[in-house]
C-alpha cells in the first residue's frame, strides 16, 4: 500500500495549527506545574433524592486557578491532561482529595455522605488503578460504599478491557455510575452486562425534556434503567418545571443549578454543619413549594 502524496497533506504545517499546538504545549507545561503549585481545587455539587432534601451524595468537580489566566474550566484542561498523560497524577489527586474531604464531612455530620468522582480512560489504562483506589480508601479511612466512580459512555466502547477493571472495582465495594447517558455510544446489549449501579441522564435530555421529541426518550431511559435495576440521576436540572416533571417519574435523584451550583468544600462543610438545608441554597419550603 502506497499513500498518495496529495498536496493537501502538506497543509498540516499551517501556521494556525502550529499556534494551536504551541498554545497546547504551553498549557500542558503550566498544568504540570499546577499540580505542584496547588493551583487545582475541587468543587462539590450535591445530588438530592427527589423525595427528600437530605444530602445523599455530591459530585467532585476539578477546577484550575491559573495564576494569570484565572479560572480554567475542566472542559479546557482535562483533554490536555488526557493527551499528555497528566490525567494519571491529576486523577489520583482528585480521588485522594475527594475521599479526604468526604471523610471529614461524614465525621462532622455523623452520617454517611457519598462522593462521586469522574474518571478518564487514561486512568483506567494505568496498570495499578484498582490498587490506587484501594490504597486511597485505606489511607483516608473512607468506606468504599461512600465512593462512586463515574465513567462515560464513550469509555464503554472497549468492553473487553473495561469489564475486568470494573469488576475488580466493584469487588472493592465502590459503586459505578454511567455519566452523560444518552449521548450515544452505548449499545443496549452491553449496557445490560456492565457492572454499573447508576445511570446519569445527560443534561441535554433534561434541558429538552418537554419537547415532543425528547419527552418519550427521557421516559424510556428511566424505565430502561428501572428494568435493569439501576438508580437514575438527572443532571442539569435548572427549573422547577423540570423538577416537577421528574418528581412524577421514577427518577431517583437530581443534580443541577436548581438545587445548587458546585461550591467549595469549605462552603459545603459550613452549610452542612449549620444545617443550611443540607447544602441547598433554597430552603426546603421554597424547594417543594410548601
Ligand atoms: P460532568 O461529569 O457531566 O459534570 C457535570 C457538569 O455539568 C459540571 O460542569 C457541572 O458544573 C455542570 N452542571 C451541573 N448542573 C448544571 C446545570 O443545572 N446547568 C448547567 N448548564 N450545567 C450544570 P464542569 O464542572 O464544568 O465539568 C465539566 C466536565 O468535566 C464534567 O462533566 C466531567 O466530564 C469533567 N470533569 C470535571 N471534573 C473532572 C475530574 O476530576 N476528572 C475528570 N476526568 N473529568 C472531570
Ligand atoms: Mg460526572
Ligand atoms: Mg454528566
Ligand atoms: Mg460531561
TrEMBL record:
EAL domain ranges (all copies): 24-276
Sample GO molecular function, one term: cyclic-guanylate-specific phosphodiesterase activity
Record carries keyword Cytoplasm: no
Keyword Plastid applies: no
Keywords: Membrane, Transmembrane, Transmembrane helix
The protein's name in its UniProt record: Bifunctional diguanylate cyclase/phosphodiesterase
Species assigned in the record: Ureibacillus yapensis
Parent-protein start and end of this portion: 231 to 520 of 528
Amino acid at each position: 500500500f502506497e499513500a498518495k502524496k496529495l498536496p493537501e497533506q502538506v497543509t498540516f504545517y499551517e501556521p494556525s495549527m502550529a499556534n494551536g499546538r504551541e498554545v497546547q504545549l504551553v498549557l500542558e507545561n503550566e498544568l504540570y506545574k499546577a499540580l505542584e503549585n496547588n493551583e487545582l481545587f475541587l468543587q462539590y455539587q450535591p445530588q438530592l433524592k427527589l423525595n427528600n432534601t437530605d444530602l445523599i451524595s455530591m459530585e467532585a468537580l476539578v477546577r484550575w486557578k491559573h495564576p494569570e489566566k484565572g479560572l480554567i474550566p475542566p472542559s479546557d484542561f482535562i483533554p490536555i491532561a488526557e493527551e499528555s498523560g497528566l490525567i494519571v497524577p491529576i486523577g489520583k489527586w482528585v480521588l485522594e482529595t475527594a475521599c479526604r474531604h468526604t471523610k471529614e464531612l461524614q465525621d462532622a455530620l455523623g452520617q454517611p455522605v457519598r462522593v462521586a468522582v469522574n474518571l478518564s480512560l487514561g486512568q483506567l489504562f494505568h496498570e495499578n488503578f484498582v490498587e490506587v483506589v484501594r490504597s486511597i480508601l485505606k489511607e483516608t479511612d473512607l468506606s468504599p460504599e461512600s465512593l462512586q466512580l463515574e465513567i462515560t459512555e464513550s469509555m464503554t466502547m472497549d468492553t473487553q478491557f473495561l469489564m475486568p477493571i470494573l469488576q475488580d472495582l466493584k469487588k472493592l465495594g465502590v459503586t459505578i455510575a454511567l455519566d452523560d447517558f444518552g449521548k450515544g455510544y452505548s449499545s443496549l446489549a452491553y449496557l445490560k452486562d456492565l457492572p454499573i449501579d447508576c445511570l446519569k441522564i445527560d443534561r441535554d435530555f433534561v434541558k429538552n425534556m418537554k419537547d415532543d421529541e425528547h419527552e418519550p426518550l427521557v421516559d424510556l431511559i428511566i424505565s430502561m434503567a428501572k428494568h435493569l435495576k439501576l438508580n437514575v440521576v438527572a443532571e442539569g436540572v435548572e427549573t422547577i418545571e423540570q423538577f416537577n416533571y421528574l418528581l412524577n417519574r421514577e427518577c431517583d435523584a437530581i443534580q443541577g443549578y436548581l438545587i445548587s451550583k458546585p461550591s467549595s468544600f469549605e462552603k459545603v462543610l459550613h452549610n452542612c454543619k449549620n444545617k443550611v438545608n443540607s447544602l441547598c441554597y433554597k430552603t426546603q419550603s421554597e424547594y417543594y413549594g410548601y
